[in-house]
From TrEMBL:
GO terms for molecular function: pyridoxal phosphate binding. This is Pyridoxal phosphate homeostasis protein. Belongs to the pyridoxal phosphate-binding protein YggS/PROSC family. It comes from Vagococcus penaei. It comes from the Bacteria. Pyridoxal 5'-phosphate (PLP)-binding protein, which is involved in PLP homeostasis. The modification N6-(pyridoxal phosphate)lysine is found at K36. The keyword Oxidoreductase does not apply. Pfam families: Ala_racemase_N (PF01168). PANTHER family: PROLINE SYNTHETASE CO-TRANSCRIBED BACTERIAL HOMOLOG PROTEIN, PYRIDOXAL PHOSPHATE HOMEOSTASIS PROTEIN. The keyword Metal-binding does not apply. Its cofactor is pyridoxal 5'-phosphate.
Length: 225
């Protein structure tokens, strides 16, 4: 691993450049450090560099890190990736944002286990790759309408993962599709689905995601390689 500080300053510089290109303000954007591939020690070094947002994709590791940093109230914890229904009860009241809501069955379980309103992103499969999680773009509106029955779920935004091998043109297409979907959800003016956020952009594609309106970018590799 190279120097974390160097990596962070490279990421920050790239974010600033993308913001400038698209005439956006850097403070509209939240950088999430995806710490799933590193241990507590390395995560702590990133905390010391001033990062506040962290994401994990495994329940055990999530809980371990969350409890290790328990006394640090400034930290914000994101859960990304597949969450099995039987594990919902262990994490749902511990996380600040859940990025992978993609079925009514999962929504039911969250509703059953949550002791407060949970900020959720709907995961959308914009590319249609069968290996990707998420609901189809054409089903997003009806899915969100169906969530009205669940008063413990707040739809804060939409999330997607673009294919790793996508071209720049395809990336623009996928990310703008998510932004258009977001606009159509917002037009519904549902109180439980303000949908003000877009969680899109990873190490390989975050500059394009920023140009297309991302508000949360999820970066792992660029921190830790
Ligand atoms: C691992 C992961 C990331 C981070 O990806 P990098 O390419 O390492 O930046 C972002 N989002 C999700 C859902 C992930 O699983």
């Amino acid at each position: 691993m190279k120097n974390l500080e160097t990596n962070l300053s490279r990421i920050s510089k790239s974010i600033a450049q993308s913001c400038e290109r698209s005439q956006r303000k850097p403070d509209e954007l939240t950088l999430i450090c995806v710490s799933k591939s590193v241990d507590i020690n390395t995560t702590e070094k990133v905390v010391q560099l001033g990062l506040k947002h962290f994401a994990e994709n495994r329940v055990e590791q999530f809980l371990e890190k969350k409890s290790y940093f328990d006394s640090n109230d400034d930290l914000v914890w994101h859960f990304i990736g597949n969450l099995q229904r039987r594990k919902v009860k262990h994490v749902i009241n511990e996380l600040d944002y859940f990025h992978a809501l993609d079925s009514l069955k999962l929504a039911e379980e969250i509703q059953k286990r949550a002791n407060h309103k949970i900020k959720c992103f709907i995961q959308v499969n914009v590319s249609g790759e069968t290996s990707k999680q998420g609901i189809k773009p054409t089903e997003v509106i009806s899915f969100i309408r169906d969530l009205s029955a669940f008063d413990s779920i707040e739809v804060v935004g939409l999330m997607t993962m673009a294919p790793y091998q996508a071209t720049e043109l395809q990336l623009h297409h996928y990310f703008s599709e998510l932004r258009f979907l977001q606009a159509s959800v917002r037009q519904l003016s549902l109180t439980y689905a303000p949908c003000t956020e877009l969680s899109m952009g990873m190490t390989n594609d975050f500059p394009i995601a920023i140009e297309e309106g991302s508000t949360f970018i999820r970066i792992g590799t660029a921190f830790f390689s």
